[in-house]
């Protein structure tokens, strides 16, 4: 625990000899600037490793921001220098104490002694624990709740500073990410290019931010109904979203902020990375964002805002080569998924993975399955901590990523050997590949200083915030007469396993034959004491010695009941499988969980199993008063477990088909459990938008033609008016000419020439009249042409509607088939069911 730039994470481990080595595993803190990822199934020891890593970061004066989706990391608050029973009493489970037949004081005392012994076995004592407690400036934030410290998210809608305003790309990115976060809260598609709400709100926020003005949510609601602009691109706002759609969107946002619980989102510390990382009075900021109480949409909303703020912050920092800050997120599943999924949290996380290292910010991500993380993100990760993985596909995904790292680092390691190591990992043993070092290492994690009480509830968080902890003064530890016990090898006993982690090692000595049971009838039932033992069963103390005949660590679960006394346990195999139906071309991604339990026989008939989509809660401890346990009929080892997994995968592969509806013309697929009529309506909505666009395009074409004809009509009308005027003038001249000729004859003048002139003028007058009549005829024809065009346009509009609506109604069944690599065995346990 010395402050020397290295993290003391454990001791190196030999799988070949199955024991700890004397060499400590020390991790160079500066290597974490290239980020780290932790993989491991439930019970692999991920929590212990990560808590230890965070303790070491705090010891090195590195401020941390922690996202805690379940409440496990909040255990950092449970640091007890004195290791007294009173420290533990408040955090132990009364139900657990009762199951072990102990009162709370006794159970807490035993746990305190166990924790102290475990720490001492790893060379950690009060002199290490007290400084860690004293330097932590621990803050547990509970967004949307008053249980811990509230957080104000209004800061996320304030206009950025002048520095970002000058960065066009950064400005647009912040607008996009802010809007994506907001729409995730509403459960609306957040595609920046295709989502109409996204486009509209982005332009509203961009409009005000460029004016240097903040925008409150109330103002945003009003601006959605009446935007501060008339056009978006070449289209009017109403063509993008009509008034009815905008009002509906505004109401959705209004319903959020009108809810009484929303006041917790508007009060508290502003979301500011600079303030979170700021050191005060020499203490190290430890910021835990506890989000276990939030809905999925609320989690995505808050996490996206937090990540966006961190991205904004790093761009204002100067370069650094050492680790100065740390961002840690537990259970990353769903927030950085592979292509084609693109939730609002993905883009800022990818930016951090690519750019944060240049500013001294390290990122650590934790998950059970390697398939949970986008491959591009994995290739930007310099350190991989790999614990026990349940599924072959998980190991294959890890090996795929490791090959890329090994190629980049120039290591010429035997990938087959690494794969074998991964398949043989034990609880709390991790394989680590660090690109800054050659080769790989195995180490066993050290005992965590923080008491690992398991996920903390919101009520416990509230208690933590209300309790004023009195940190004792540092005093010398009395060592007289005390010798730390030697470090026990893994699997040698339960003392080295933190009590909150379900033990995957069998909680009993190795297999030994059962005591002989006489073939004669069982003895009579005594008046007091336990019930008799049948030939196929024994008492708990005997049966725990031999009933589970496993050669490999496996989780044990127990069915509980209020009237379990006198009953026995029968062994079942309990499995959790996950299947992923996906189709990149259709944008389909459906992930479903299935749970099943079958009798633990040598030959399992999967046809007798029933797949359930809801998980049943089982206990990690047996009920007290159980009469006995049936013996396992098969011996489990790694080979047997792999075979069971393979058979269960084959069973899922044969049984699971996702039956949907598809509209191939529109490339749309129905959602899970979406009724046919609802899907048809959705297709019609899409078609109506297509019709609108096609009609607009068609109208533009015909309007141009009609405009040209109308121009011709106007010119022809002018021409006709001119010809009429000319004809009237000619008639007048003709009349005057004839009058002059007649007068000449009467008066005896020269009449022949006068009559000829009059005749010419009559012909000219007649020609002008004819041209005027011809102009009227042409004018009528042009008007008829316009009518024909208008009728033709109406016919084509009708054809478009008929054709497109026909597309909308062309639905057909569509079965999405599984691929073997899309089947994951997430959990495999022995379940003891009451009989």
Describe what you observe in this structure.
The protein has 835 residues and is an alpha/beta fold. It has 23 helices and 24 strands. It has an 11-stranded mixed beta sheet with strand order 2-1-15-14-13-3-12-11-4-10-5. Strands 16, 17, 18, 19, 20 and 24 form a 6-stranded mixed beta sheet that branches. The protein has a 3-stranded antiparallel beta sheet with strand order 22-21-23. Helix 9 packs antiparallel against helix 11, helix 14 packs parallel to helix 15 and helix 17 crosses helix 18. 35% of the residues are buried.
Strand order of the largest sheet: 2-1-15-14-13-3-12-11-4-10-5
Q: How far from one another are the termini? A: 50 Å
**Strand count:** 24
Number of H- or I-type helical stretches: 23
Taking all Cα atoms into account, the compactness measure Rg is: 40 Å
The largest β sheet comes out as: 11 strands, mixed
What is the beta-strand fraction? Answer: 15-25%
- Please give the share of residues in helix: 40-55%
Task: Please tell me the overall pLDDT.
Answer: 80
Low-confidence stretches: 468-547
Structural class by SSE content: alpha/beta
Globally, the shape reads elongated
């Amino acid at each position: 625990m010395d402050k020397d730039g290295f993290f003391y994470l454990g001791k190196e481990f030999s799988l070949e000899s199955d024991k700890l080595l004397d060499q400590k595993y020390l991790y160079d803190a500066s290597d974490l600037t290239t980020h780290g990822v932790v993989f491991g199934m439930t019970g692999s020891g991920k929590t212990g490793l990560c808590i230890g890593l965070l303790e070491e970061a705090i010891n090195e004066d590195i401020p941390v921001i922690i996202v805690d989706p379940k409440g496990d990391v909040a255990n950092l608050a449970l640091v007890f220098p004195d290791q007294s029973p009173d420290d533990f009493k408040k955090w132990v489970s009364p139900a657990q104490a009762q199951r072990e037949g102990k009162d709370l004081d006794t159970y807490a005392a035993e746990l305190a002694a166990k924790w102290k012994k475990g720490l001492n076995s790893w060379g950690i004592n009060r002199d290490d624990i007290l400084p860690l407690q004293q330097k932590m400036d621990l803050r547990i934030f509970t967004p949307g709740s008053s249980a811990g410290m509230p957080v104000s998210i209004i800061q996320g809608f304030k206009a950025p500073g002048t520095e970002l305003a000058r960065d066009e790309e950064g400005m647009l990115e912040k607008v996009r990410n802010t809007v994506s976060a907001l729409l995730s809260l509403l459960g609306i598609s957040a595609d920046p290019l295709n989502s109409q709400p996204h486009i509209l709100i982005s332009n509203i926020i961009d409009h005000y931010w460029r004016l240097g003005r903040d925008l409150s949510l109330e103002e945003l609601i009003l601006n959605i109904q009446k935007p501060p602009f008339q056009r978006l691109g070449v289209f009017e706002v109403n063509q993008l979203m009509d008034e009815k759609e905008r009002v509906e969107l505004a109401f959705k946002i209004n319903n959020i902020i009108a809810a009484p619980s929303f006041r917790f989102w508007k009060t508290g510390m502003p979301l500011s990375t600079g303030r979170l990382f700021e050191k005060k009075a020499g203490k190290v900021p430890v910021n835990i964002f506890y989000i276990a109480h939030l809905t999925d949409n609320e989690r995505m909303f808050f996490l996206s805002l937090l990540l966006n703020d961190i991205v904004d912050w790093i761009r204002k920092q100067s370069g650094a080569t050492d680790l100065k800050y740390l961002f840690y997120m537990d259970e990353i599943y769903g927030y950085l998924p592979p292509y084609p999924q693109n939730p609002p949290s993905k883009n800022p996380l990818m930016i951090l993975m690519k750019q944060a290292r240049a500013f001294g910010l390290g990122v650590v991500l934790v998950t059970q399955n390697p398939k949970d993380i986008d491959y591009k993100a994995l290739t930007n990760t310099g350190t991989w901590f790999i614990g026990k993985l349940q599924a072959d596909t998980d190991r294959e995904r890890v090996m795929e990523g490791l090959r890329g790292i090994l190629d980049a680092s120039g290591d010429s390691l035997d990938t087959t050997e690494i794969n074998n190591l991964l398949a043989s990992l034990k609880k709390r043993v991790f394989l680590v590949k660090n690109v800054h070092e050659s080769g790989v290492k195995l180490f066993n994690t050290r005992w965590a200083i923080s008491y690992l009480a398991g996920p903390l509830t919101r009520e416990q968080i509230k208690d933590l915030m209300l309790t004023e902890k009195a940190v004792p003064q540092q005093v010398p530890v009395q060592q007289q007469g005390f010798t730390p016990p030697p470090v026990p090898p893994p699997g040698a006993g339960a003392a080295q396993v933190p009590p909150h982690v379900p033990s995957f090692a069998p909680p009993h000595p190795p297999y030994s034959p059962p005591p002989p049971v006489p073939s004669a009838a069982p003895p009579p039932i005594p008046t007091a004491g336990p019930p008799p033992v049948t030939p196929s069963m024994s008492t708990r103390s005997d049966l725990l010695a031999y009933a589970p005949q496993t050669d490999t660590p496996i989780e044990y679960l127990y069915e509980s009941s209020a009237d379990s006394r006198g009953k026995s346990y029968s062994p079942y195999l309990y499995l959790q499988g996950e299947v992923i139906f996906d189709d990149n071309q259709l944008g389909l991604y459906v992930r479903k969980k299935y749970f099943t339990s079958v009798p633990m026989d040598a030959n399992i008939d999967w046809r007798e199993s029933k797949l359930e989509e809801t998980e049943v809660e089982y206990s990690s401890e047996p009920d007290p008063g159980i009469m006995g346990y049936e013996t396992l009929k098969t011996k489990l080892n790694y080979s047997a477990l792999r075979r069971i997994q393979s058979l269960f995968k084959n069973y899922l592969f044969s049984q699971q088909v996702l039956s949907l509806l598809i509209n191939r013309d529109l490339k749309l697929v129905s959602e899970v459990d979406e009724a046919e009529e609802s899907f048809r309506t959705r297709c019609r909505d899409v078609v109506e938008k297509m019709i609108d666009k096609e009609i607009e395009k068609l109208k533009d074409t015909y309007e141009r033609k009609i405009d040209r004809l109308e121009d011709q009509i106007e010119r022809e009308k002018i021409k006709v008016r001119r010809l009429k005027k000319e004809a009237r003038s000619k008639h007048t001249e003709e009349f005057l000419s004839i009058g002059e000729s007649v007068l000449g004859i009467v008066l005896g003048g020269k009449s022949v020439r006068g009559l000829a002139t009059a005749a010419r003028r009559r012909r000219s007058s007649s020609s002008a009249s004819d041209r005027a009549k011809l102009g009227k005829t042409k004018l009528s024809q042009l008007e008829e042409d316009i009518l024909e065009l208008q009728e033709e346009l109406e016919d084509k509009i009708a054809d478009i509607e008929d054709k497109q609506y026909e597309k909308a109604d062309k639905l057909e069944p569509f079965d999405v088939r599984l691929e073997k690599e899309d089947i994951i065995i997430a959990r495999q346990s022995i379940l003891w069911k009451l009989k």
